[in-house]
Write a structure and sequence with these properties.
The chain is mostly beta strands. The chain is built from one helix and eight strands; from the N terminus they run ββββββββα. It has one helix at residues 132-148, and strands at residues 3-8, 11-16, 23-26, 43-49, 52-58, 77-86, 89-97, 106-113. The strands form two sheets. The chain has a five-stranded antiparallel sheet, with no helix packed on it. Strands 1-2-3 form a three-stranded antiparallel sheet, with no helix packed on it. The protein is extended and about 65 Å long.
């Protein structure tokens, strides 16, 4: 799953190849939305700590499947750190906190490799490597056989 990260003055946008939900992350120091307003991907706020982009996200919807099963949307928080390692790699580190679910926060780090900037990121549903086409063709062939035997 590839991600496209775009920065403009005061905003960072992170768009995944799959699920098609771009996150728009303000960097201007504004506070999080009211705790009563829950959004599909949560409410993200970013800041720079040296060369690392730090993004804190709260206010997830309970029914969206983004947060971990059983986690409490009122206390769930993810802190992400995007750190450039070199021209072709980035460390993506995230810390998950929810004192109602876990006894202490936990962290994972995933190295990301930059894809060729001349490579186009295709919509997942239309990409030639989308394996769902096999299912569509099987269904179509079965319908053709069914029609031919009538």
């Amino acid at each position: 799953n590839d991600f496209q990260i775009v920065q403009s003055p005061g905003i960072v946008s992170i768009a995944p190849e799959m699920i098609h939900s771009a996150r728009i992350i303000p960097l201007d120091g504004r506070p999080h939305l009211s705790g009563g307003l829950h959004q599909w991907l949560g409410d993200s706020r970013g800041r720079w700590e040296g060369d690392t982009l730090v993004v804190e996200t709260t206010n997830f919807r309970a029914d969206d499947g983004v947060i971990f099963q059983g986690a409490n949307p009122a206390t769930f928080k993810i802190t992400e750190r995007f750190t450039r390692v070199d021209a072709k790699s980035l460390n993506y580190e995230f810390t998950v906190e929810d004192p109602m679910t876990w006894t202490k926060p936990w962290t994972a780090l995933i190295p990301w490799t930059r894809i060729d900037p001349d490579e186009q990121m295709y919509e997942y549903a239309c990409h030639e490597d989308n394996f769902d086409i096999v299912h569509f063709l099987i269904g179509a062939r079965n319908r053709q056989k069914s029609t031919a035997t009538r």
